[in-house]
Amino acid sequence: MSQSRNPIIVALDVPHLESALDLARQLAPVVGAFKVGKELFVAAGPEIVRRIRDTGASVFLDLKFHDIPNTVAKAVEAAVRLDVQMLTIHTSGGLAMMQAAQKAAEEVALRTGKTQPLVLGVTVLTSLNTNDLAEVGIPHDVGNQVERLASLAAKAGLGGLVCSPLEITRLRQILPRDIQLVTPGIRPADSKADDQKRTLTPKEAMAAGASWLVIGRPICAAPDPRAAAEQILASL
Hints:
With 236 residues, the protein is α/β, with parallel strands linked by helices. The chain is built from eleven helices and eight strands. β7, α9 and β8 form a beta-alpha-beta unit. α4 (69-81) runs parallel beside α5 (95-112) and α5 (95-112) crosses α7. The two termini are 21 Å apart.
């Protein structure tokens, strides 16, 4: 998926197909893509992806695959056939798993004639901090763990990473220039942080080197979602 002029990816964190499609129709002219996550995909199934794609909008399938290499490769193959433009895997699944995912994306796209999706590695979830990592036995601070996993993802050949805005600057220093960085944890200056612990404003994240901004509640929960998206875009 090539970088568009509009870097906003709207997270459709809603529980029903119709409410997601309603948001997609409102927002398609003013955003770059739509993220379909676990809640919506479990509720609406692959049909939600097909319906959004029918409008011409791009889809970021955020299911964070993490399993043995063969299982993840098969899941990626299904996602390519569904014609998504981005998808996520957990970098903590290891080098072989990431390589299998990337290979599946390339081979199935070539075989089916579909555009190869951007396979994104998820490093450390934005809801976690260093204390949370210690509780699960990872003896690194968040920054070090993100860098470790990001470097492994680059070695595996992934085209992008999902990371906190606060790690963008450092990752830009250690990763190949062509790797795209997709950043959740984006909150406009007048928004609540909610359950995100590592946040920046949209303008700050883009200045740090983000390629794409994933924004959910500040747009979808706004009284006028389109106006909220337009305001964020103008702030950039």
